[in-house]
UniProtKB/TrEMBL annotation:
Pathway: Lipid metabolism; fatty acid biosynthesis. This is 3-ketoacyl-CoA synthase. Residues 327-376 form the Chalcone/stilbene synthase C-terminal domain. The chain crosses the membrane at residues 6-25.
Length: 415
């Protein structure tokens, strides 16, 4: 029996390797001409007067007359343990004490500041005119305005009448990668095109003034931020590109009731509106990550590591670092980073970009990934072409007045 078992195992390994090579050969042939290049991107930094330090946080909390002493203690503990630093940004209306009476004009002005500041810089730096843009995708989860958000950008920059524009809402922290995925699919049908993706969030109308602790947490984590990206599938422009998208994996768990309700916009019994974050959120995120990795890892890990894991999976974990050099974990909070990092077997060097992004900017929702790529560079990570394979759990240029160095590399994502 032993010799037969050895022969059977050897035959299985040969068939597996043949299938593996055939898969990649077929993918290489059919993916020709379907490249997605990132020419440039710009992350938004709000004015200094909108920084939200500990003193300013305490001032805002003290204005909430609905809170009792235990609520104050809970908020203090949450803020201390959140991982956020002293230089995150808050909407102007909340700094001015108008959080209990949010106005549409405040929400619109908040996101328009992100739109025009980041896009002005991208157009100026890339020398690409707004009239050359063929595709425009905007994702803002918590604001749906009329005229639409894309219409505001088209009108502001006098873009072409045949531009393909899309507004995405309600997608949360995954929205930026969903937008890039949409552009990538559009590129398959439309050749030699230029696309703009704008990812931000409207926080002005979402500050919570009630007492539900599962809804108070959003005040302690979410902050103002955003990013605009310039993409193309025109190979003639690939020398301008700083990144190239290799693959993107998405998992949708909305059919699962527990996942569906773990993060949602809702009202408490007193009618105060905010983002509700359930205690099962980390568990749901881990489940989505597991599903994503089953698809992503065969595309990024070397064959020998996959075989080693299949042979010894009962006694060892798969080594992600054999195929992934850099990791961008969603900076949703210290607990999320800690748990996902531990499950993936990552060290502090790997987690540093996520921790630094959370500390400096807070949870900026869908824009968090792009802030992290700059943190990779600032932390001394090698992002030269061919060395950068980034893992984004959810599914390089930082906006500043100073010059920044160009980066190049390849990105593999899961959302």
């Amino acid at each position: 029996m032993a010799p037969f078992a050895v022969e059977l195992f050897a035959a299985s390994m040969i068939l597996f390797m043949i299938s593996y090579v055939s898969f990649w050969f077929t993918k290489l042939v059919f993916r020709r001409g379907e490249s997605c290049y990132v020419i440039d991107y710009e992350c938004y930094m709000a004015p200094k007067e909108r920084k939200l330090d500990t003193h300013q946080c305490a001032k805002i909390v003290s204005r909430n007359k609905n809170l009792c002493i235990e609520d104050h203690r809970f908020l203090v503990r949450t803020m201390v343990n959140s991982g956020l630093g002293e230089e995150t940004y808050c909407p102007k209306s909340i700094i001015m004490g108008e959080e209990e009476d949010p106005k549409l004009v405040d929400s619109v002005s908040e996101i328009e500041a992100v739109f025009y500041d980041t896009l002005d810089r991208i157009f100026a730096r890339s020398k690409i005119l707004p009239s050359q843009v063929d595709i425009l995708v905007v994702n803002v989860s918590l604001l749906s305005a009329v005229p639409s958000l894309t219409s505001r950008i088209v009108n502001h920059y006098n873009m072409r009448s045949d531009i393909k524009s899309f507004n995405l809402s309600g997608m949360g922290c995954s929205a930026s990668l969903i937008s890039v995925d949409l552009v990538q699919h559009l590129f398959k049908a439309h050749k030699k095109k230029i696309a703009i993706v704008v990812s931000t969030e409207s926080m002005s109308s979402q500050w919570y003034s009630g007492r539900e602790r599962s809804m108070m947490i959003s005040n302690c984590l979410f902050r103002v931020g955003g990013c605009s990206m310039l993409l193309t599938n025109d190979s003639a422009r690939k020398n301008q590109a700083i990144l190239k998208l290799k693959c993107l994996v998405r998992t949708n768990l909305a059919s699962d009731d527990e996942a569906f309700h773990c993060c949602k916009q809702s009202e408490d019994a007193q009618g105060y509106k905010a983002i509700y974050l359930s205690k099962t959120l980390k568990t749901i995120a881990a489940r989505a990550l597991t599903k994503n990795l089953t698809v992503l890892l065969p595309q990024v890990l070397p064959l020998w590591e996959i075989i080693r894991y299949l042979l010894f999976k009962s006694s060892s974990k798969i080594n992600l670092k054999t195929g992934i050099n850099h990791f961008c974990l969603h900076p949703g909070g210290r607990a999320v980073i800690d748990e996902v990092g531990e499950n993936l077997g990552l060290n502090e060097y790997d987690l540093e970009p996520a921790r630094m992004t959370l500390h400096r900017f807070g949870n900026t929702s869908s824009a968090g990934l792009w802030f992290q790529i700059q943190q990779l560079y600032l932390g001394g990570h090698d992002l030269r072409l061919g060395s950068n394979k980034c893992l984004e759990r959810y599914d390089p240029k930082l906006s500043s007045k100073e010059d920044h160095k160009p980066l190049s590399g390849e990105v593999r994502m899961d959302q």
